[in-house]
Amino acid sequence: MWKRQYISKGGRLTLIRSTLSSMPVYFMSLFYLPRKVRLRLEKIQRDFLWGGGALEQRPHLVKWSLVCLERKKGGLGVRNLAWMNKALLGKWNSRFAIENGALWKQVISGKYGVEEGGWCTWVVSGRHGVGLWKAIRKERLDMYRSLAFRVGSGRRVRFWKDIWCGDEPLCESFPSLFAISMAKDAWVSEVWNSDGEGEAWTPIFSRVLNDWEFEMVERFMLKIQAFRVQRENEDNVVWTGSSSGVFSVKSLYSMLEPEGSALFPFGIWRAKVPPKVAFFAWEASWGKILTLEQLQRRGYSLANRCFLCLSEVETVDHLLLHCVKTRALWNLLFSLFGVAWVLSGSVKDTLLGWHGAFVGKTRKKAWQMAPLCIFWTVWKERNLLAFEKEGLSLQRLKYSFVCNL
């Protein structure tokens, strides 16, 4: 059994991503994960990450929904179990559409029936029970807008209601024409005329078109003229969530995942520093390290004074950027690289603007890891002052930074 107290947060994150998140994958790829089970599994992961448990209460510094975002969006890349469950179940809907001769598909089709076109079964509408396919079929709704069709014979693709011509169904692109269509459920092959006189699209409307509708009809015809029915070929389903057109669990998961932060310095994960240092920089970027200000916000009655300078309020940005003692490290760094630099107002903005193209290739790695080393050095020194009651030594602070760098 892992001993949490001996593993850094960076190490715990690695174990969660490699082990704890992977353990329920087989179950989630077949069954819908009950909400209580999912919440329990997420609690185990949260407690392991932040060091808490049944017998101790450690603060969870960042909300779990943010932790579960990918690193480019400001998260830690931990898989959200609900989204992962949906993506894994969605794989079966994709396989059902393309594996025409598979035995398992024949069994499912025989039990539930197949919709016209043969891309999926009918919706399982029974009130009771938690059948395996019942849960899988529900997840097709999340996939529908990302399923398009490559027309071959046109016998399995709806002319108006399926996505085969552009990014949306024709019934949404041209709703007024759809309203007067004589065959709203027509297949593509039924609207395509290939008699001896030539090939052409022949949609039929319920009334004579008005003069003001001619321009719209012209746009409509120009849009579908780029496509042809090839009766010797089969219709195929295309997954628009990936550039290859082939479904993948990863692409569906990315679609289910919310956007997150528009700008985040995810380069901290590429810097050549230990995982625990990168994790600390991630916490600092969100302003969530446990400074005295953060402790006050969490309800602790404490005097708020920076442990380093003993004069200012201890906020994240003050401690790591603007404290006079910390500025000594920044000035040392800039003198080592021979640059003039103005620090931003926050840790996040500082890291976002930390570009090292001007320092040269040989020193770029050191430049990228330098701010993270300063953050870690200052935090360790601050904790020595807070808990070990040691006196501040600027010489020791600089020496520690140079050694870490």
TrEMBL record:
<keyword id="KW-1133">Transmembrane helix</keyword>
<feature type="transmembrane region" description="Helical">
    <location>
        <begin position="15"/>
        <end position="33"/>
    </location>
</feature>
<keyword id="KW-0812">Transmembrane</keyword>
<dbReference type="Pfam" id="PF13966">
    <property type="entry name" value="zf-RVT"/>
</dbReference>
<keyword id="KW-0472">Membrane</keyword>
<dbReference type="InterPro" id="IPR026960">
    <property type="entry name" value="RVT-Znf"/>
</dbReference>
<protein>
    <recommendedName>
        <fullName>Reverse transcriptase zinc-binding domain-containing protein</fullName>
    </recommendedName>
</protein>
<feature type="domain" description="Reverse transcriptase zinc-binding">
    <location>
        <begin position="247"/>
        <end position="330"/>
    </location>
</feature>
